[in-house]
Amino acid sequence: MNTPPSPPGTERTDGSSVRIGALAPLTRPGWVDAGRHLLAGLELAVRDVNDVGGIAGRPLELVVRDTGADPQRAAAAVAELARLGVAALAGEYHSVVARAAAARADALGLPFLCSSAVLDALTEQPTEWVARLAPAQSHGWQIYADFLLGAGHNRIAVATEPSVYWASGARILRDYLAPRGGTVIELDMRALDPTAVCDELVGSRATVLLLLVGHPEPAVSIVKSVRRDRRLDEIMIGAPAGQPEFAEWATSLGDDGAAIPFLRYLPEHLSPLGARVETALRERLAEPPSFVAFEGYDTVAVLADVLRSHGVDRARTAESWSRVAVEGTRGQIQFSRTAGIGVWQWAWAPTQVVDRDPAEPDRFRILHAG
């Protein structure tokens, strides 16, 4: 089912379909490629659900809202979707946006299965209404830190911008690396341009620069500056948040975008279901699907299973997270309560550190698995 974003007031309200609200960043300043892949996964799964009879004979329907990476816009969309009578809420990629959506969903009693946001503190307080598929940031970024240490890096510079998400990432790295002999040197991108970053790197004696900044800018400009500075030929650039995952990265940077390790939430080998979904997503997207597309598919697979088993009552859906056992594209999905995380959490999706192969930038190399 290929459902474009629906203008307010145009959704079907005759009760013939079971509707799920879907949030995704589909316009700037949102990460549009991520939103497009997320939506492709959601839509493909809706089509597959409907091909086998929908929800107790009723078709499943997505009601899509573009968040544009704006937390207030997302919160307003959640309230609108709740009024429209959706059975549950799905999606979102940006952590700060998902956090606003989760808070509003919790307040309104609307079940929300978050697809792709990783911020540990997705909600301020524990809630029964929200569950999440993506690994928590602390889990994935500690795996990334293990990769850095294993590769011999213990002086790590991070180029940062103001954001709850980036600040959380820097803190996770600092807290994890310090007891293991690692040092994190923060470079504040409010005060530095890409050329000044290069000068700071030379003086810091760091062997790695991590991009804790937005995409495409200033990430692309920083990479270009570092790659062209002969003083920094030996430095490794990394991007734990996954900027190099999408085709736009390779288009913007060409060969300069290769050999920049990032986190990806895929297994080394896909199951038969995962392989079938990958083929269908590739056709739908006209390019290789990212892990975000698989997250979208798995979100609808879980919600469809819950709605079939427990009906469309919102409270019953929220009560059912602990009983979920769904074969997703990346493994068996079950939710549990995890220390320090206030939502029901799949612990954990497969986690890899990968990069684009310098010899073939469209091919990914697995460097480390957690």
Structural key phrases:
four-stranded parallel sheet; alpha/beta; 370 residues; disordered N terminus; 39% helix; seven-stranded mixed sheet; single chain
* C-alpha termini separation: 34 Å
In terms of structural class, how would the helical and strand content be classed?
alpha/beta
The beta-strand count equals 16
The biggest sheet amounts to: 7 strands, mixed
What's the rounded overall pLDDT mean?
95
Q: Which parts are unreliable, with pLDDT below 50 for 5 consecutive residues or more?
A: 1-14
Shape designation? globular
**Helix amount, in percent?**
25-40%
Please state roughly what percent of the residues sit in beta strands, choosing from under 5%, 5-15%, 15-25%, 25-35%, 35-45% or over 45%. Answer: 15-25%
